[in-house]
């Protein structure tokens, strides 16, 4: 599938065992490694195919310094700095590189480009992200067990054990460290090497992790104090709203029971709440009671429904539960625990979503911040910085629950240094553009792309959402007002990947929109009727006809080794490569559906009781078997192609001296002095819209904003 990118004889595999007074899970790698007590206590390494070596200080258990490291390891480092064909490799390399840079006294700085990460290669191949799971699944050398217990014994904050006090366990710990090298090297050799372009993208993202993003710790501290009060006061308000039925935001079952007794029996609200309908016998006697659930997704649908029927108390109670029971306001505490000198580092995991290649987030979870904002955002920020008390903050602006207000103010906690400014560029409707482009030379898809080009040239032209609203409402374009356009937007965002009424309801909830079931069904039907180019792209595969993504994937499974193309996407099934169905994107990158085959799967009810069996196409997604259907295939290729655009753009920003400090699925943020804002905006716009050698025919557009703190308010 690809040539060998690196000569494995020029790779130094290495791993540190470490200790620190910081908790790694809470503090993150950079805060952990920056702690004055942080130290590397064991180094294991192997150069090329040589046996693994173990190195500890003259006094075992004491910290290692750069000057005490083995001569061949230091010499390899010098060579790697001078010759790009030499690389270090470490599993979850960002951690070991951070240790080398911050916790090994006297060390020579190790930039991202010196290190590759076998975990990136493993997840790209469809393997689990952890070394033990990946090695086992790939048939590589197994990782030594019981490492967690040994790490707890010697490395966690407050650990008292030493090599002298626990010699047997120390010997086991050293063997465990050696085993990690053997497992990592074996795994790398058993997986497809990634092309250099993907490693360039990895290094660009690691540079962003190193660069970090500034945070306003004063604001975070005061907001965190309000969040802790909100947790308690939210419970008090729930107690009042429910007549004493609910006492805290964590009491889900009593809140569910209160809603069941309150909501109309014949409305969609009970449908959103119901996990299992009641069963009755032929005499009408109840055989099994109904079962209800109040998950986050159900709450998000219930809130606009309750607002639509005028039940303000129920909507309020649900909002308090949604945000007061959420971990989102707790992100202020996470920021404070992870910041180093008012900066948080290491927030991104490259290829963290392996079925698309998107990054995922760790720590503060920047990728998952709400895109909503407070209309009075600036006033709220100033009030918190001014030390506003809880009651006055609750009354500020409107009656939005305090936990919700705080959740919407996490984004503005990210700030530039001094008088610098943020310049943010956001790809416009990127997934909506990518989808028809992937379809290729099909009339309906080409017409869709032409709409984007027309609007890009003249923003007064009716846009995609207006046209979608016209189609699903059966109204002329000129009669589409702002509320109807919102329905068109929800439909476009929800239905492009094969979703139906449920997807439409979930997306509507994200925008505070409730669509009755009848209207939702009609909207789905009309949208699909107006977008047959998209329906055909999802595809079908039967004895009589086979087309689209689903057809190409199934034909590939039936004829191993042969390539089946649909639009700009290709599939090939290779049984000898762990029964992997490969999907090649326009960029040339592959998505992997490892262990792909049809299986007889038990269908379970909401009590996990078997109610039947069905044959479904499944693959290994990490440690678990996951079902594929035409919607999965469509969503994956669209989001993966959009990810390729972002990944390539991040590389360009590094190359052109505009390294990003932060990014999400469709935006990049850079920080520059105030005097450079205008020139940077022009440069950033040009880079975002430039495209690549594989994007011919894809209309790209972006919107740039200048911000004194990270915000969606200025971008609206």
Secondary-structure blueprint:
Layout: E1 11-19, H1 24-34, E2 39-47, E3 53-55, H2 71-82, E4 87-89, H3 93-102, E5 115-116, H4 118-124, H5 131-138, H6 147-154, H7 167-189, H8 196-211, E6 213-214, H9 217-241, H10 252-262, H11 268-273, E7 274-276, E8 279-280, E9 286-288, E10 291-292, H12 296-308, H13 312-324, H14 331-338, E11 343-344, E12 348-353, E13 358-361, H15 377-385, H16 390-395, H17 402-407, E14 421-427, H18 430-439, H19 443-457, H20 464-473, H21 482-495, H22 501-510, H23 517-530, H24 532-538, E15 540-541, E16 546-547, H25 548-558, E17 564-566, E18 569-574, E19 580-584, E20 590-604, E21 610-621, E22 624-628, H26 630-655, E23 662-663, E24 667-672, H27 677-689, E25 702-707
Helix pairs in contact: 1-3, 5-7, 6-7, 8-26, 9-13, 9-14, 12-13, 12-22, 18-19, 18-26, 20-21, 20-23, 21-22
Structure description:
The structure is a single chain. The chain folds into four domains: 8-194, Nucleotidyltransferase, domain 5 (2-Layer Sandwich), CATH 3.30.420; 217-328 and 370-412, no CATH class; 419-428 and 642-707, Alpha-Beta Plaits (2-Layer Sandwich), CATH 3.30.70; 441-530, no CATH class. The strands form eight sheets. It has a six-stranded antiparallel beta sheet with strand order 17-18-19-20-21-22. It is built from 27 helices and 25 strands. Helix content is 45%, strand content 17%. It is α+β, with helices and mostly antiparallel strands and 716 residues long. The protein is globular and about 75 Å long. Strand 21 and strand 22 (624-628) form a beta hairpin.
């Amino acid at each position: 599938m690809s040539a060998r990118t690196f000569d494995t004889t020029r790779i130094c595999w290495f791993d540190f065992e470490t200790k620190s007074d910081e908790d790694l899970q809470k503090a993150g790698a950079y805060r952990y490694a920056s702690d004055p007590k942080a130290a590397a206590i064991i180094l294991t390494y192997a150069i090329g195919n040589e046996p693994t070596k173990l190195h500890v200080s003259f006094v075992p258990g004491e910290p290692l310094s750069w000057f005490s490291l083995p001569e061949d390891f230091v010499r390899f480092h010098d060579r790697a700095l001078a010759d790009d064909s030499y690389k270090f490799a470490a599993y979850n390399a960002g951690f070991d590189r951070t240790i080398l840079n911050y916790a090994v006294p006297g060390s020579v700085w190790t930039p991202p480009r010196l290190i590759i990460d076998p975990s990136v290669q493993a997840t790209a191949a469809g393997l689990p992200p952890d070394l033990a799971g990946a090695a086992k699944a790939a048939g590589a050398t197994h990782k030594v067990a019981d490492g967690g217990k040994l790490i707890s014994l010697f490395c966690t904050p407050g650990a008292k054990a030493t090599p002298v006090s626990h010699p047997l366990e120390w010997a086991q710990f050293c063997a465990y460290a050696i085993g990690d090298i053997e497992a990592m090297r074996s795994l790398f050799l058993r997986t497809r090497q990634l092309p250099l372009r993907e490693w360039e993208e990895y290094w660009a993202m690691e540079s962003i992790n190193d660069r970090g993003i500034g945070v306003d710790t004063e604001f975070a501290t005061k907001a965190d104090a309000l969040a802790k009060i909100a947790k308690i006061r939210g419970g008090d308000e729930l107690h009042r709203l429910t007549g004493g039925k609910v006492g805290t935001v964590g009491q889900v079952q009593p809140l569910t029971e209160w809603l069941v007794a309150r909501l109309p029996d014949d409305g969609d609200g009970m449908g959103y709440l119901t996990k299992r309908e009641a069963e009755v016998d032929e005499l009408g006697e109840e055989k099994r009671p109904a079962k209800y659930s109040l998950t986050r997704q159900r709450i998000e649908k219930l809130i606009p429904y309750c607002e639509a029927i005028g039940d303000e108390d129920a909507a309020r109670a649900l909002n308090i539960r949604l945000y007061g029971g959420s971990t989102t306001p707790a992100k202020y505490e996470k920021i404070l625990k992870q910041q180093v000198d008012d900066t948080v580092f290491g927030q991104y995991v490259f290829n963290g979503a392996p079925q698309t290649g998107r990054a995922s987030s760790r720590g503060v979870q920047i990728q998952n911040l709400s895109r909503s904002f407070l209309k009075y955002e600036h006033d709220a920020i100033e009030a918190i910085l001014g030390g506003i008390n809880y009651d006055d903050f609750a009354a500020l602006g409107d009656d939005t629950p305090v936990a919700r207000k705080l959740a919407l103010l996490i984004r503005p906690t990210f700030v530039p240094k001094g008088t610098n400014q943020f310049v943010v560029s956001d790809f416009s409707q990127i997934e909506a553009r990518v989808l028809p482009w992937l379809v290729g030379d099909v009339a309906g898809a080409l017409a869709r792309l032409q709409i984007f080009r027309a609007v890009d040239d003249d923003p007064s032209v009716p846009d995609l959402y207006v046209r979608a609203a016209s189609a699903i409402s059966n109204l002329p374009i000129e009669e589409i007002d702002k509320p109807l356009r919102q329905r068109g937007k929800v439909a476009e965002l929800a239905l492009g990947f094969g979703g139906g009424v449920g997807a439409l309801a979930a997306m509507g909830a994200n925008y505070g929109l409730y669509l009755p079931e009848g209207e939702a069904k009609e909207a789905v039907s009309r949208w699909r009727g107006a977008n047959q180019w998209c329906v055909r792209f999802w595809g079908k595969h039967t004895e009589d006809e086979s087309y689209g993504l689903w057809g190409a994937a199934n034909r590939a499974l039936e004829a191993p080794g042969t390539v089946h193309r649909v639009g700009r996407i290709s599939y090939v099934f290779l049984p000898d490569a762990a029964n992997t169905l490969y999907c090649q994107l326009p960029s040339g990158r592959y998505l992997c559906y490892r262990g792909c085959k049809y299986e007889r799967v038990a269908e379970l009810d909401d009590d996990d009781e078997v109610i039947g069996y069905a044959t479904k196409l499944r693959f290994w997604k990490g440690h678990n078997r996951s079902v594929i259907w035409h919607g999965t295939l469509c969503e994956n290729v669209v989001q993966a192609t959009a990810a390729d655009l972002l990944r390539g753009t991040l590389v360009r920003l590094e190359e052109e001296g505009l390294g990003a400090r932060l990014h999400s699925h469709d935006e990049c943020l850079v920080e520059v002095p105030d005097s450079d804002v205008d020139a940077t905006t022009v440069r950033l716009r040009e880079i975002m819209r430039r495209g690549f050698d594989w994007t011919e025919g894809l209309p790209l557009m972006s919107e740039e904003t200048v911000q004194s703190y990270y915000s969606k308010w200025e971008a609206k």
